Amino acid sequence: MNNNNPEIFMFVVALLSYLVAFALYSVSLGFKRQKLYNFARILNWIGAMFALSALLYRWYTAGHPPLSNMYESLVTLSTFIVLAGLMFTSKESVTLVEAGSVATAVLMIGIASVFPSNVRPLVPALNSYWLHLHVSLAFLGEACFAIAFVLSYLYCLKRLSERSDNAEETCLSRKEKIACYAVAWVLPVLFFVGMGALAYSLGSKPAYAEVRYNLWIVIAILAFMLLFLAKYLWRGLGKILPDAQKLDNLTYRAIAVGFPLFTVGGLIFGMIWANKAWGRYWGWDPKETWALITFFVYSIYLHVRLVRGWGGVSTACLSVMGFIVTMFTLFGVNLLISGLHSYI
∠144-146-148 over CA atoms, to 5°? Predict the structure, then answer.
C-alpha cells in the first residue's frame, strides 16, 4: 500500500463530511430544524478531526510540519478555517458562518488539489524549528481573517436585504449601497477573473502546465455552481441572516483574535527567522512586503474601529480588503512574483 493512502483517505473523508455538513446547514436554514443543524455541526467536527489527523500523519511521514509548499499550506489553512469557524460559534450558533467557513475550506482543498501533493524534503532555508512557529501562527491568524471575511460578506448581504419604512429602499446611503453591492456581487466576479488571469499567466511557465489545466477545471466547476445557485440564494436571504450588528461585532472579534497571531507569527517570528536564515531581519522580499501590507490594512481596521468609532459598511469593506490582500500574499506572491518565498 502506498504510504500516502491513509492521508488521502482521511482527506477524502474530511471533504465528504464538509460537503454533507454544508448541505445539512443549508437544509436546516430552509426548514428551521435544530436537529439538522446539530448533525451538521457534528459532521463538521468529524471532518475537521479527519483533516487534522491527515495533517499529523503527513507530518509524521515527512518529518516536518505540512507547511512547506502550496498544497500543504492550503490544506492546513483550510483545516484551521473550519476549526476557527466552530470555535467562534461554540457559544452562539451562526449557521451561515459555519456553512461559509466550510465552503471556504472546500474551495481551498479544491485549489490545493491542482498543486503537486507529493512529500518533498525541506529546502535548507525552511529546515528550522522557526517553520513551526512562523507559519503556523500566521495561518491561525489568517484563519481568523477568513472568518471575518465570511462575516463581512454576510453583513453586506444583510444590509442590502434591509428595507426602510417605505419598503422599497434599502436602509443605506448611496455610498454604502455601492460598497455593499461591490462586495456582494462584484467581488465574486473579480474572483473568477483573477483565477482566470492566474491560470492564463501560468501558461508561460512550463513547470506549471498541469497546475494551469487543473485550475481551469476548478474555475469551471465553481462558476457552474455559482450560476446554478445565485437565483436561489437571494430569495428570503434577509430572513435567515443574523442581525447586522451581531455580524459586525463578530467580525471585530475575529480580527481582534487574528491580528496579534498574524503579527507575532507572520511578521515578528518571520523577521527573526529571516535573520537566522539570510542574515538580515528585513529585505523587502515580495512576501515580506505583502505581509506588511496585510498588517497595515488590519491595523487601519482596528484603529478606525477602536479610536474613531467606525463600524458597519466601512469596516466590513476594510475586512474584505484585508482578506483579499491576505490571499494575494499567499497565492499571488508565490505564483506571480519571483522571490525568496516563492514555492508551489
Answer: 70
Amino acid letter, 42: I
Structure-model confidence comparison of residues 131 and 203, the more confident one? 131
Which position has the grid cell 507529493?
118
- Cα–Cα distance for residue pair 342/329, rounded to 1 Å: 11
8 A C-beta contact, residue 181 and residue 160: yes
Answer whether 192's CB lies under 8 Å from 223's CB: yes
Residue 133, φ and ψ in degrees, nearest 5: -75, -50
Helix axis angle for 130-161 and 95-112, nearest 10°, is 130
pLDDT tens figures, 269-328? 888 887 877 778 877 888 888 999 999 999 999 999 998 888 889 999 999 999 999 988
Most confident of 76-90, 179-193, 328-342: 76-90
Question: Amino acid identity, residue 10?
Answer: M
pLDDT in the model for residue 242: 83
The tens digit of pLDDT for each residue in 150-160 reads 999 989 888 88
Considering only CA atoms, which of 152, 226, 146, 156 is closest in space to residue 191?
226
Q: Cα 32 from chain centroid?
A: 27
Looking at per-residue pLDDT, the higher value among 175 and 238 belongs to 175
What's the grid cell of residue 314? 466601512
d(C-alpha 238, C-alpha 180), whole Å = 14
The answer to whether 281 touches 267, Cβ cutoff 8 Å, is no
SS3 10: helix
Boundaries of every domain in the chain = 5-336
Cα–Cα distance, 315 to 251 (Å, whole number): 9
Q: What is the value of pTM for the model shown?
A: 0.86
User: Can you say how many angstroms the Cα of residue 225 is from the centroid of all Cα atoms in its chain?
Assistant: 19
Q: What are phi and psi of 343, to 5 degrees?
A: -160, 160
